[in-house]
Description:
Layout: H1 2-30, H2 32-55, H3 68-74, H4 78-89, H5 93-100, H6 104-118, H7 123-132
Helix pairs in contact: 4-6, 5-6, 6-7
Amino acid sequence: xxxxxxxxxxxxxxxxxxxxxxxxxxxxKVFSTEIYxxxxxxxxxxxxxxxxxxxxxxxxxxxxxxxxxxxxxxSISPREYETLELLAVGHSNKEIARLMEVSPNTVKTHxxxxxxxxxxxxxxxxxxxARELALIA
Length: 137
């Protein structure tokens, strides 16, 4: 009984393999152009990834050093600098006031002083100018 089952299983397995082979041959014949295009695209993608990885240098970023000379030249106070740092993180005036434990009006005063000292009109300009001057990271 086991011998008969094994013979039938081997025969069915061989037939399934033959059908899969015929289907593979049909698919490769019908879609040969598309298959070659996909293989070429994969080869160029792999080449691009390899070349990009191989040719680009991996440099470590230098640690941020605050420009204390610019801080002194602009006469930015420590509290104004703290306000600028919190502004750069993206906090609102109320959040800055809560974190610094001052009133929102004090934060507005610090920001107005910063805008004047940095010669800017808006928050985004202040952050950009502070980064250009290496005041904040």
